[in-house]
Amino acid sequence: MRMLINVPETVVADALRGIAAAHPELTVDVENRVIVRRDAPVAGQVALVSGGGSGHEPLHGGFVGPGMLSAACPGEVFTSPVPDQMARAAAAVDSGAGVLFVVKNYTGDVLNFDMAAELAEDEGIQVAKVLVNDDVAVTDSLYTAGRRGTGATLFVEKIAGAAAAEGQPLERVESVGRQVNENSRSFGVALSAVTTPAKGSPTFDLPAGELELGIGIHGEPGRERRAMMTSREIADFAVHAVLDDMTPRNPVLVLVNGMGATPLLELYGFNAEVQRVLGERGVAVARTLVGNYVTSLDMAGASVTLCQVDEELLRLWDAPVSTPALRWGM
Amino acid sequence: MLDADFFRRWMTVAAASVDREAERLTALDSAIGDADHGSNLQRGFTAVRATLEKESPETPGQVLTLAGRQLISTVGGASGPLYGTLLRRAGKALGDAAEVDEAQLAEALRAGVDGVMALGGAAPGDKTMIDALAPAVDALPDGFAAARAAAEEGAVATTPLQARKGRASYLGERSIGHQDPGATSSALLIAALQEAASGA
User: Which part of the chain is the DhaL domain (chain B) (predicted)?
Assistant: First the structure.
């Protein structure tokens, strides 16, 4: 194992100390694992709190700041945070206008956020929740935990965050968040497995010359394995998988997201192929974001997320944002 | 009769057993999950052991409630709320009694298992911790050894199943052929009951 770490036990705390040093505009509580924008609570504004396992950086800590999240709770690597963290975050950012929890659809995240909502409500904080479940690789049925939340989390956090920054009420911020999720779909591929600090070896065995299709962001294997494909072939497969599940009538936001170990040279090349397929399918593209945003430690690979937007959602997407990982218009 | 000391011993033995088996649990989890079940439970039960030493709860119910709350606050993931609920519900069911008998413990654990099923939405056969816990509770009236055997058998029997809950469910048919890590750790918890009773 070659990792730039001290010991697996302190990986998350060490990273938090580093974030604190790099971003004086954030308040980082290393002991309780809560990252808060320094000017919180902002009077008259709904606060957004999200969180999940560590290892997906910049998600979520990198998205804390004006125009996006008010606070983030990082859990252990690939493990959801605990209710105490989320309740503490909610108390730190609530201005009285209420708190929106943005929750990715994994059993652990859902259960812990539910418990946190109860704790926060006991303290008199008004809480609403948006569940993100955009991954079309997972067959959804009554008998499963449902679809995973992946790339669309960024769209939900940005667009609902913009609505909150405008002073819209909790009910409205929540419904904007839900609308973004309902209009979003994702599909991911892995070219290598993940090595978590605690385990120290790849979580699944992916021989050279093969790739996993339909992976999530936790190093779990995907739906199927095939012989290695070209960027063009992967883009065809991924975009078709997404479009088989949605028929955009409006332009889309495109997120071409790296899993952590794929360089931008490859991601931009992949984006060219994604845009080609979208053009062939007659899908208009409003905005495109390329980079490592919802990562999976050292996994090589990429995901494609499309979000169908109307004028209002596009306006909120374009609204100013100032966070460590996403910044424009201010 | 089982007193607070017995329940403290149960949690201490469980913590030692999770320490011993953490690597195996994580290895099982890496096949169908995200390779952290062992280290997460280890962190939780280490905290439970420390809290029980510090706070010295006086009744069986208090021991389990405190342990459950500690797991929820430290484990994270799905196993934190699920194991936490199992112990808290069981602790609540025991009430304020200073000593309880085996039948009361069986009843309390059944309340705990019902709580886990309600929270996680899982039923027997979904390839989860329920597959070890439910048969163990059924067997508990026949003694700790019978409960242990039923839990271990239940855990092994998850291998050919397709996961329908939790992260392993995302793999669909590819989850078949792997023993469920949650059912495996549940079997450890039940085995610890027998070890605590034999004074180990």
Answer: 5-195
